[in-house]
Amino acid sequence: MYVATKGGERAIEAAHQWLAEERRGDRDVPELSIAQIREQMSLAVNRVMAEGSLYDPDLAALAIKQARGDLIEAIFLIRAYRTTLPRFGASLPVETGEMAITRRVSATFKDVPGGQVLGPTFDYTHRLLDFKLAAEGTTPEAQRKSADETPAPHILDLLDRDGLMEPLETSEDTPSDLTREPLEMPADRPLRLQALARGDEGFVLSLAYSTQRGYGRTHAFVGELRIGTCAVEMEIPELGFAVEIGEVELSECETVNQFTGSKTEPAQFTRGYGLVFGQNERKSISMSLVDRALRWEELGEDNTGAPAQDAEFVLYHCDNIQATGFLEHIKLPHYVDFQSELELIRRLRREAGAEEREAAE
Amino acid sequence: MSDQAFNFAYLDEATKRMIRRALLKGIAVPGYQVPFASREMPMPYGWGTGGVQVTAACLTPEDTLKVIDQGADDTTNAVSIRAFFARTAGVETTTRTGEASVIQTRHRIPEEPLVEGQILVYQVPIPEPLRFLEPRESETRKMHALEEYGLMHVKLYEDIARHGEISTAYAYPVRVEGRYVMDPSPIPKFDNPKLSDNPAIQLFGAGREQRIYALPPYTQVVSLDFEDHPFVASKAEHSCDLCGCGTSYLDEVITDDRGGRMFVCSDTDFCETRRAQGHRGRLAPEERT
Q: Which Gene Ontology MF annotations are present (chain A) (predicted)?
């Protein structure tokens, strides 16, 4: 006998208990601490901070633990927490030119003032599984040298001095904030950059890759990729001057792309820009390629119909929290809508069948 | 974090004020989609974040809340949203349509007629009725501004040409007070007539798409159709097998693997109330004495 389904409440409670147990896994294996995740899964922590739009390594590590390592779920937890936080104000713009650099490479110049620094990179490692790590060996300390005190200005500024780069746009306006105002089209460049900085790494990567393969090609060189920490300063109204309130690790990428210009205006290189929380060069390079592709209109290029040139397409689909929520909602009950379609398709079939029979008679 | 760490109904007062402003604008321009700065909620986008934000902005401590999904109070997501407000707002909850001052719904309008003073909050996945005809937001906003709805009529006409009738069974487009074409959210078209001239306030929230729209009480809402192909609010041609009602919207339930099926009211409160009054359907369990 059919009984209207009851007990959603009990089912939910039981599911949550089961989930907590699965998250913990085998109790004979020691539990992960937040500090372990923060220190040893730091690139996962960085991704969660970047796409969660909240710089807090401990909370990101907690979110990763709670999400059983599902990074999009962890990003979701951070986003939901972030919206509950009060806003005291805004920091001053971060001076990335004065970054304490841990990694800095240029693909356009062999040597630059301040030098190239490889830093802690996977580049040039041979991707062979290191079974020593499984054997719980100790990691030897890396060799050290004292920090180079030579200033390391942005490399594109050096080209800028010769007039070879398109000048940086400057504006005194407060950039809009898509977490406080609805995203509306057309979106200006600061808003596009904000959306891309929060956007899904995989989505932005694939879009950037598509531009390299000809869907909105921009001929990008990595003018400079720098990773390091920057001081965050805030003006305190009561004090009347700016004080340092902390520091953040950032990855910044500036690309040099092909030219604008005409018979009357001399040719200049153009720019793409990427800036991401934490060490995440894949995301920052991807972001700068997509940023550049989205600038086709202001630079007088043709719209070839490439996805990476389409701001509405890119901005409305790059957020993985929006995407995953809407995608997964189709597993919710849709009895009512499905019932209305069932009823419609049965009627259409009946009517089509009747016509056929009439035709046969 | 303790529950006290959250403001009443979760959202902070500044956010609620922003949402209320959007709601007032929506009420003032019925059927117009008002952009609002939708917040990230602790439930996923697509699971009712728009409805939850609208409900949060409307609730007062004196309110009684009912939450339904597919017409039912006990589907898991309805349970989850009701529990969310019971926890963050401490309001009274009910499953009785008549006792609720605020009803959040996904995909249904209750069978029991609503009355003045009630608020019906719809969860909306895609607020733009023209979206599947024109994917660009910048274009569809222009089409609404210019009242350029020809594309929609062409689509409905093409349906008739292909299938002999308009093949939209839910989220059936409507025109509000002769001006804006509006998506009524994915309610079955059976529910469309209840949108019009309704004494309750009807509010629509789309969180992911950052849109709010509204129908003030007694607004004229017309389902789009043609003179020679008038709109018909259809349902399965059965009566409820539990309460015997012949006019309510029905869910089909597969009861065995030999084609056995039964039809029951999708509105669980309506069905239970009728059974309590002694109505019996074809397969209703025997009265225990």
A: lyase activity
